[in-house]
Specification:
With about 280 residues, this protein is mainly alpha-helical. About 80% of the residues lie in helices and about 0% in strands. It is elongated, with a radius of gyration of 28 Å.
Length: about 280
């Protein structure tokens, strides 16, 4: 065999190996995605890991690490998911989608300081991003950095003045800062838009109790109970209001209903005694 033919055959062999390598990588990725869509998560995790080992320098690996992290998160492997998202961000540090993935997982784990860093990274890259602003405002609220929270909520509301979570956040912020009238006005507007929203009605009832508006609170609680007769908290708050008004028989009835729905009788024993 002459030298030219040997070079040709060697080159053909190397090219075939390269194509086979790429084919195997792509097949592993495709199969991993199929398993992901079928919720066969353990198989998907294994295939993503095989693909990453097969071609550790592939430009698509950032996305693979991100997908692997999401699969691991769904399986409850939260520490491993953090590692996978971090590997993805080591390759593409300015990916806002991957920063949001890791930030949301940090929040799930109660690691607010780390989530905050990622969220700030997203806001730096996308100043109008609603999700990042909303999560960051939540962290600011927990830190009692109310001015900063208000800025984030305002950015959201400038884009969508009907945004439910941002409006609710503003109402809670007003309440925390002692702007009680503004807080209640905010909740009133939310309830007006969604009069059958049990969460909003419960929040307004609690706020009305704090502001000494017990009669208004009772109306909201009765509406909550009408919408959901198994809302235990509504019966408990209603019982407390009625007991404070010396309506002992009605208070006892509310407490007994809460007990019927699963509240231990011992937990309410003192209140029941006060209803005699």
């Amino acid at each position: 065999m002459d030298k030219m033919k040997r070079y040709f055959l060697a080159g053909y062999f190397l090219c075939s190996l390269s194509l086979l390598h790429a084919q195997n990588y792509n097949e592993l990725v495709e199969r991993a995605m199929e398993y992901t869509f079928k919720d066969s998560l353990k198989q998907a995790e294994s295939l993503f890991q095989q693909a990453l080992k097969l071609d550790p320098k592939n430009a698509r690996n950032a996305l693979l690490f991100s997908n692997l992290g999401t699969v691991q998160k769904r399986m409850g492997e939260l520490d491993e998911a953090i590692k996978s998202y971090t590997m993805a961000l080591n390759i593409t540090p300015y990916s806002t989608a991957m920063l949001m993935n890791r930030a949301s997982l940090y929040l799930d784990l109660g690691m607010e300081d780390k989530a905050y860093v990622d969220l700030c990274g997203v806001v730096d890259l996308l100043p109008e991003d609603i999700e990042a602003r909303l999560y960051r405002a939540y962290i600011y609220m927990n830190r009692r950095q109310y001015n900063e929270a208000r800025i984030d909520y305002n950015v959201i509301l400038r884009q969508d003045f009907k945004h439910r979570e941002a409006r609710l956040g503003m109402a809670l912020l007003d309440q925390k800062e002692g702007r009680h009238t503004a807080a209640l006005d905010g909740l009133n507007a939310l309830v007006e838009d969604a009069p059958k929203d049990k969460v909003l009605l419960m929040m307004r009832a609690n706020m009305e109790v704090e502001q000494g508006q017990e009669d208004a609170a009772l109306l909201d609680l009765d509406e909550v109970i009408r919408l959901n007769p198994k809302e235990v908290e509504a019966y408990l708050i209603k019982g407390d209001i009625l007991l404070g008004k010396k309506k002992k028989a009605e208070a006892r009835a509310a407490y007994e209903k809460a007990i019927e729905l699963g509240v231990p009788r011992m937990q309410l024993s003192d209140k029941l005694k006060s209803c005699r």
